[in-house]
Amino acid sequence: MNPLEIAIGILEEGPICDNCLGRQFANLSTGMTNKERGYALKTVLAMLGHQKFKDGDPSLIQKLESCTNQARSILNVDGSDEKCWICNDLFKSLDVWVQRALKLLKKYQYDTFLIGTKVSGLLAENEEIIWTTSGTISAEPLKSELNREIGKLIQEATNKEVNFERPDILVLLNLAEDKVELQSSSIFIYGRYKKLIRGIPQTRWSCPLCQGDGCEHCNYKGDMYTTSVEGLMKNPLIECSGGVDVVLHGAGREDIDALMLGTGRPFVVEVKEPIYRHFDLIDIENSINRSAKGKIEVRGLRFVEKDMVAEVKIADADKVYRLRVIFNDAVSEGKLKASLDKICTSIEQRTPHRVAHRRADKVRTRTVHFAKLIDMNSGEATVCIRCESGLYVKELISGDEERTKPNLSELLGTEVRVKELDVIGVKHARLKKKN
User: Fold this and answer.
1) 359, 362, 410, 412 — which has fewest CB within 10 A?
2) Average of pLDDT values for 81-107?
3) 92-185 with 187-314: one CATH topology?
4) Distance separating alpha carbons of residues 366 and 382, to the nearest angstrom
């Protein structure tokens, strides 16, 4: 069937607004809105009907008049009081939805936005019916037109830009529940942190028994530790952004009892559901460092895109450790140096006992690039080791019941334990900056 025949069939179904009629032919022409397209179709049909009537063929006029009040619209006579059966005259109330959205948006700081629509079951069913009965193959979905038309009105009112990929705010028109909802996209900030005291984890560590609800095992706190690197960043970031929470994504993590020194560990902190997006990161950096009171220090903060989270997590990075080790038996300096030279090789490491509960039990190969003695006295020594990311360095020293080979204990012929461990360098690949 040609478009005019399809349009006649659609009009015979009942009252239909210009938007909904034009939308059934949205892919057939450009440079027109659906409303203009629908009005044009009705006008052409009315003109053809009058011409046929003059020629003695009243069939088209009769078909159009069979649509009761819809015929008034087709014949450009004002006064139709019947609602469009497809959208229930939704397009007459666009401004109501726009004003609802603008009222909510006033609270937020944003540069880009996007409109989304959740249609009701009735509207979705009506659309399926018209597509099936008319046989049209050129239609546009109702929610696509709503997103576009309301988006244009909000853009005009706010002078903000539409962004289809990563908008600052998603405006969701929930037609099913007759309300507007906002979803504020996370802010991502890159930087490096130093951990200057022992005994705090990188991120929140929920109690394994109660999963954060609080129990006797965790003294009813829900967490195994009272604070974390993530927690020390949280309050300053929430205060300046109005967000609801933060999540720290680190380039690996150090043990709870280890310091993180040197130039610090790369990280991206995600601020969830922010109200404010424009703030001075130097001020935030100072605020975090001041409120942390010597526990952590952050530096080099800058805004980045979400992609940086994955980049930080998967990028290769060598780690440099300073370890204070204790020997069970006396060890000579010469033998220690020789043994440190021998572990500068490929290491076969089975998943350590201490992390077996959260990592697959398998053998991984990692490389030790160098290992040297810094000082030695009274049955202890300080050594510096640079190794490939993913090597458990404590087990490189102890052997972990022969799960790591070679290991320093095996090479020395005596048990060696790590007394203190500090990360003094994360040699991370250069990361891209946000344009």
Assistant:
1) 362
2) 93
3) no
4) 22
CATH topology classification for 92-185:
VC0802-like (3.30.2130)
More confident residue, 133 or 205: 133
The amino acid occupying position 356 is A
- Residue linked to tokens 């350590």: 352
**What integer pLDDT is reported at residue 56 of this predicted model?**
65
User: At residue 292, what are phi and psi to the nearest 5 degrees?
Assistant: -75, -20
Question: Quick one: pLDDT at residue 68?
Answer: 42
pLDDT at 50: 66
Please say whether the beta carbons of 285 and 329 come within 8 A. no
For 98-111, the DSSP string reads HHHHHHHHTT---S
How far is residue 131's CA from residue 18's CA, in Å, rounded to a whole number?
A: 16
Coil, helix or strand for 4?
helix
Distance, CA of 98 to CA of 41 (rounded, Å): 28
Q: Which residues contact 124 (CB under 8 A, 6 or more apart)?
A: none
- Distance between CA 248 and CA 51 in Å, rounded? 72
pLDDT digits (tens, 9 = 90+) for 326-375: 999 999 999 999 999 999 999 999 999 998 888 899 999 999 999 999 99
Q: What is the pTM of this model?
A: 0.84
Name the pairing type of β-strands 317-327 and 296-304: unpaired
Is residue 255 part of the annotated active site? The answer reads yes
Report d(CA 66, CA 84) in Å as an integer: 16
For the domain with range 317-428, which CATH number is right: 3.40.630.30, 2.170.130.10, 3.40.50.150, 3.30.70.3190? 3.30.70.3190
**Catalytic residue, candidates 178, 255, 316, 375:** 255
Distance of CA 246 to the CA centre of its chain: 12
Residues 136-148 pLDDT 10s: 888 999 999 999 9
How do the domains of the chain map onto residue ranges? 1-85, 92-185, 187-314, 317-428
Strands (E), 223-362: 245-250, 259-272, 296-304, 317-327, 346-350
Give 164-187 pLDDT, tens digit per residue.
999 999 999 999 999 999 999 999
The answer to whether 25 and 5 have CB atoms below 8 angstroms apart is: no
Residues in the chain: 435
132: part of which helix (H) or strand (E)?
A: helix 121-134
Q: Report d(CA 131, CA 265) in Å as an integer.
A: 57
Looking at domain 187-314, does it have CATH number 3.30.2350.20? no
The burial of 282, by beta-carbon neighbours within 10 Å (0-12 exposed, 13-18 middle, 19 or more buried), is given as exposed
